[in-house]
Amino acid sequence: MGWELYFSKRKKKGQTLPKGQALPKGQASIMIALLILTFILFFAFVVNTGMLINAKINLQNAADMAAYAGASVQARQLNHISYLNYEMRRQLKKFLYRYYVIGGMTQQSLYGSKTELRQWSPDNTADADFKVPTVCIIWKTEDNYCRVNILNSISIPRKAILDRLNETLRQGLLNLEAKREENCKKIGEVNGLILRQWLWNTDPDYKYLINSFTGELKNIADIIQGVASGLGVIPRELIIKRRIETLADYINHPAQKTVNLEKTRTFASSGDIAANERTIHAFYSAYYSLGEHAFPAEDVTLDELLPKELIRLNPITIGFDTYFENLDLKPSAGAPTGKAVNDCEAKAEPLTTPAKVPVSFTKDPTKLTYYAVRLQAKARLLLSPFREMTLKAYAAAQPFGSRIAPNPLALNSQNFVKEALGKNTPGTLGILKGVIPNLPLQENDTQYRGWNQNFVITTMFEKLRECGGTSSPSNTVTIDQNTLENCTQFGMIPNPYEAGKYNIINDLVADDPFDRNFDENGLYAFWAPVMSFEKTSHGVSADTEIREMIDELLKPPPGAPSPPYSDEYKRELMNGISEYFKRLRDGQGENGEGYNIAILVNPYMTRFTASKPMEPIKISEEIFLNDPKKVKASWNDAKDRNIASKGRSGYSVKFVAFKTIMEKTGNVTSDGSEKWNNTIPPDSEMIGNEFLLINH
Fold it and tell me: CB–CB of 260/32 below 8 Å?
């Protein structure tokens, strides 16, 4: 069937056509109209197809931007978790520095063979070896009680009935002996207090805790403040632990659905903005990539396609024994009849901490951290007879290329302690843990050596004398608060053992434009609340939680004959943590930290003080990891060789295929082989196998 065209001569005036025949003048017009319509329809088809393809490409690009932006927030949060996790290790080093170096620096056994383990002996004899680090602090340079095993009693003459002069002398000597024995007890009390402060102090400036000091302690309060200033290791570790858990909560924040412009603006102006930061960045990145011409703003929506758990952090907690030197009263062989005259014999007095002290986290490899989105928008088409067409685009990205801690199979509580018992303190009562805290330092070191080596202790002690300005050849050094704060930096340095195991924040390459962390005071500040806004709005209090943790840790071990801490001391600790949290809320914590802001100190520089500028730390490289190639060892694929040569620290971001996420395939875990199980949960829009066919 086709068109039939009739051509006839022009009708002359007056001429008539045969009956039933009409002039075919309209058929050509119809043909031309149909040709034009066909062209218009074809043109509309081409234009709309092009616009549709362009809209789909733009939408996919916007979805990619959203996925990458969301994953970049996750990467930054993972970096901060890794920095804080390493800070937990640094804070334990701070305690070990105090315990092994400062606590034992007055013993005569300080300088031993550099290749051997430390002997903890007051008089440098094997018989007096305590077998464990034992804290003893000398307050006056003329004293020597930490350098002898026995403080002998005063020789008192026998009573002579008829010799009044002898009796007067004898009575005076007895009074001196009583005073000496009283001082022996005080020496042990002060040593124990110092150790407890290193462990538990909640009042960095001793503004409140000093009220619990009585008698002689009040007279030496300023000295105690100098040698034991700052938060104790346990409160500090508890606060860091809470900050890490808050950041993990942000990563595990529930997936948001049907996020539009209005909802995003609400997220950015109210509630816990940090918890929704991932969503805010993702939506705005997509929204501003699309523009307002092809897609109506009110019709752009984003769905986060995420499991309930994107990260699982497992805390490592330890329990351990620590020791301080106590002086026991032992009856003297030459005591006069009827009078209890005693020698003061040094012994290692244990102080045991329950197995609940957090020192690190490990990342569970069965939980993969990634960010997947579905972006929907209605595309405007120029000549479409239909309304706007709804388009969808999917994209996924993943933080990768760094680490929080070693693999859980390679790191557990046993890596933070070594087996040890003090002399004459067997753990037969089930009270002692039988382990003391320790960390490996050298490249092939173990926790059985670590800080217990003569080489490590004497190297650290020499730096203590150097930064403290002491030139005396004796193994004593005058310590005040500023000296201790600055010198402790040497004890908290990164060590060769940690290369490739931790993400260590650093500014080792001075001219690296892409990696600069610390300010002119050597501090790095970032958002890491002790407790998230969402939890506090539901009545959860961080200081109450930490007070409860401390109270639990302060309970005496089962079978202990008496509590190691007085009720007054515990009460002052609780008051101290409450006051410290008030300071945190005012941004007046240690190093200027706040309730929401964490502060890290540059581990490669000395501290900035009024009298001394910051300068690079210099110490034996046998225990100091400062090679940028080993520290900045994260994934690095920069095309520019000059940039690549500087190394990288921290997590990067890469796109991953949906097939990888859904079928758990591909090298997306830390070593490319670990199994993970947190795939995208299905929803109502995942019809049939459509979702599995997405290869983008």
Answer: no
